[in-house]
Design brief:
Order of helices and strands: EHEHEHEHEHEHEHEH
Shape: globular
Number of helices: 8
Length: 253
């Protein structure tokens, strides 16, 4: 299990060169580039720019792991969903061209007046469509466990069962709703079959990270945990302290 970072929010004002330099110096191994941030790695880039971005990461110790999109598919309006699917496919192309492993998408709650099961099937159908598109281009699709109601582990599992695609998985998001009876084992065991990535937040928040890390290790998870913490006026200093605490919480006791 390895440590990486999401550019949301500690790195949001960094360009690509500074992201690579900072993460390398602070001992981080991968990054998820969130859309809308200063790095500017977006679908509008041309072929030469995409190749240059990929080369920068390949020449570094930091893996360009994924793109954090805000594409979501719960709307009752087919036109809104279609626009989000089209954007997600553009990010799949961007991931393919830059050498990223995956794109992250999300649900963002349940719309009023629609049965939750219907929304789950709708989201699942679009995830399967993107999963198929990603399969052709070597790009995984990760659904972040996100949004009011949709972040509840049973609903996330329902959506995954609706998607039923081997190229579609989950991004664990370290939400308060994961915790039951003081721990995350119940939620983890429910969602483990689909976990492909993991966001971690404030390590001092009281969330049971030592238990989560132990569960990940025991399950054979060998991918990344990505720091997604609040912005800091001293980002490099913060990232070094964050890594030190991550190492302690990840230590077998």
């Amino acid at each position: 299990m390895r440590l990486g970072a999401v550019t949301y929010n500690v790195l949001k004002d960094f360009d690509v060169d500074r992201i690579i330099r900072t993460l390398s110096e602070c001992g981080y191994e991968a990054v998820e580039l969130r859309t809308g941030h200063k790095h500017g790695v977006e679908p509008a880039l041309g072929a030469a720019e995409r190749e240059a971005i990929g080369q920068k990461f390949r020449a570094s110790r930091v893996r360009l792991l994924s793109f954090g999109t805000t594409c979501e598919f719960q709307s009752p309006d087919p036109a809104v969903r279609a626009a989000n699917v089209a954007t997600a496919k553009q990010f799949i192309d961007l991931a393919h061209d830059t050498g990223a492993l995956a794109i992250k998408v999300r649900p963002n709650g349940l719309p009023a007046g629609v049965a939750p099961e219907t929304t789950a099937r709708t989201i699942g159908a679009h995830l399967a469509e993107l999963g198929e598109e990603g399969s052709r281009k070597g790009v995984e699709i990760w659904m972040e466990v996100h949004g009011r109601d949709t972040q509840n582990p049973p609903m996330a599992a329902t959506i995954m069962r609706a998607a039923r695609h081997k190229n579609v998985g989950l991004c664990w998001n370290s939400n308060p709703t994961d915790v039951a009876n003081g721990g995350v084992r119940q939620s983890f065991e429910l969602l483990r079959p689909w976990i492909r990535n993991c966001h971690i937040n404030e390590l001092t928040s009281g969330y049971p990270y030592r238990e989560l890390f132990a569960l990940l290790r025991k399950s054979g998870y060998d991918r990344y945990t990505l720091c997604e913490a609040a912005a800091s006026p001293e980002p490099e200093r913060f990232l070094r302290y964050y890594r030190a605490l991550w190492m302690e919480l990840n230590r077998e006791c």
